[in-house]
Amino acid sequence: SRVTSLGQLEMTWRSRVQFPPLLVRVLHKSRLRYYGKPEKKMDMPYQAYFEVADSSGMMSVVLWNSLCPEWYNSMKVGTVLLLEQYAIKNSYPFKTQPTPGDSQMKRFTTIEINLNVRDPPTKISIVPEEMVKPEWGLPEVKYRFITRSELDKLPNNHSCDVIGLVTFVGRAERTRKREHGEDFWLYRWAHAIDGTSDQPFILELFATSQPDVFERIHPMTYLVCTQMRVVRDLTENPSNRTYLTTSNESQIFVTGWHKGQPYIKDTKVKSFIQWTKKQNEADQMKKGVIGGYYPFPRPPNNFSKY
Question: Which whole-number Å values give the CA distances from 78 to 72, 81, 114, 149, in the listed order?
């Protein structure tokens, strides 16, 4: 009875010192960010964003410092949270914005909820799914799955989710975060097919905060990638240059991690599973490739163009 809504919070937060409890569902989850610097002595300089929603709309939650190693892995997409003793701040203007699966959902972008170890010490409780009541009006997680046959019609930077059977996975490679910096992004290329086209999805998969999954991508696994972005090279032949890359909110799942995930109810996921049941496993295994150097986008045919 004491629970407030995100909409109510946005209207009344300036006139309050303490805030009533919130009951929300996690819809999106960012990768874990490390912001430590040598000159700053901080024990756990970590931060992660979550987009949470109730019946009134969607808002950002920021998990800070030592709460990250304690709670980050438990707060999955689809998890229902009861939040108490949190802080409210004006939104950080340069944060990345995931594309919601439900385009009708209202977004509260002026403020964000902060979960801290102290000042005040936030209390986080996970509500088991079997205890979630329909009258709470919490939205379901919705996705934007596309098939390979639909990809060529999508514009550059379009956000989507994909599922496919992995046929190729390249070795892990590194690229500098900044031109002269010492920090690197780790990524690998993968191909996945879904039976709707002769062409595979070409996926540039950066290591998100799921190292256990990133290392287990291999041929013959069912791969789900959420919040991917379309990258289309408009200068050359577009069909040869279209691929998908991970965003800050991407989540990756392989065989063994699918059980209980919200996307298993999606119609395109179900139709993909039906397609895989008709495939000959031995035939698909022969096509599987792992490792090696994968130059993509491919350089031009002659050196002067290059």
Answer: 13, 10, 19, 28
CB atoms within 10 A of CB 151: 22
Structure tokens that stand for 149 in this block = 């046959």
Q: Are 263 and 227 in contact, with CB atoms under 8 Å apart?
A: no
**Residue 305 confidence class, pLDDT cut points 50, 70, 90:** low
Q: pTM of the predicted model, to two decimals?
A: 0.91
Bridge partner list, 224? 163, 253
The pLDDT value recorded for residue 48 is 96
Q: What are phi and psi of 241, to 5 degrees?
A: -110, 0
107: nearest Cα among 14, 222, 10: 10
By three-state DSSP, how is residue 287 classified? helix
Higher pLDDT, 8 or 294: 8
Residue 267 contacts by C-beta under 8 Å, 6 or more apart in sequence? none
Number of neighbouring beta carbons within 10 Å of residue 240: 13
For 303, the token pair is 């050196």
Identify the structural domains of the chain with CATH numbers, from first to last: 6-136 (2.40.50.140), 148-300 (2.40.50.140)
Q: What is the pLDDT of residue 240?
A: 61
DSSP letters along 235-263, please? Answer: SS-HHHH-EEEE-TT--EE-TTS-TT-GG
Among candidates 192, 191, 195, which has minimal Cα distance to 149?
Answer: 195
How far apart (Å, rounded) are the C-alpha atoms in residues 89 and 148? 41
**Distance of alpha carbon 303 from the chain centroid:** 38
